[in-house]
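Recall that a protein's primary structure is simply its ordered list of amino acids. Everything else, from secondary elements to tertiary packing, is in principle encoded there. The following example makes that idea concrete.
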Amino acid sequence: MTLSDGRKFGFSVFGDKKGIPLFLFHGTPGSRIWFLEDDNIAQRLGIYLIATDRPGYGLSDKKGNRKILEYSSDIEELADYLQLDNFSVLGVSGGGAYAAAVSHCLPNKVKLCILVSTATPFLDGKPSKAISKENRLAFFLTNYFPWLLKLVNKSQKKIIDNNPEKYKKTLKKGGSHLSEWDNKILLVEEVLENGIIHSKEAYRQGVNEVIYESKLLTRDWGFKIEEIKTPIKIWHGEDDTLSPVSEVKAMEKRLLDVESHFIKNGGHFLTENDEVWESILTNIKEHFNSIVLI
């Protein structure tokens, strides 16, 4: 679609088009491509999934000096375009900041905010020591040596574009910085195939947005999470090394209306597990059914 300021805004739809509307916000980096084909679980449960590309990713035009809070305006326009009076949002990893922001800005339209493996606000712009050293290094480079991180991302993009099988083999190797859960997930062929397509689309316009957005996540998000009035539901792996559960539990205490699901032995890649994904969508459906009954 074309936004009011002339920018193109990319999105994909999955599941039951007449079902409960749920916007999906990808991680950093990421894209609107969440599935190789339609999502059968969402279709069966009556969930209408709308996955979006943030500015500079996939099909969405860049927006200079954008802020996390500003994304709410894009989502509000997309909701109007799709003729949705209200909806829910689900943010994964870095996308959690945007799910929280949209919920904060549009309390009369967002009925439920779901945070999965979510990023959390940094204290004084510094990543928690509980985060894996590899991830802390990436955030350090983002703020102090962005040119070096840009080279790393360009190298990765080149492999994804020109030698996807090599990239797949690299993913299969996993790493000691990931949990056992995540390393097992990276051995699943369908996850790898989808990961390549998803990543290729994320880097469609280059690597600059990844670096800029990583910097955004380390800074003040522009709002206080304790002021969010929308009900929030959290799904988080207890063994997540990329977004440590200790930080999420600390954030949880600041939220007004929250229900948390901490997955024993769970890693960062929760939505790639069919059992967890179905439990999330089932919970959403039950939440809306309870509202209707009331």
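Residues 11-293 form a domain with the Rossmann fold fold (CATH 3.40.50.1820). The mean pLDDT is 93.
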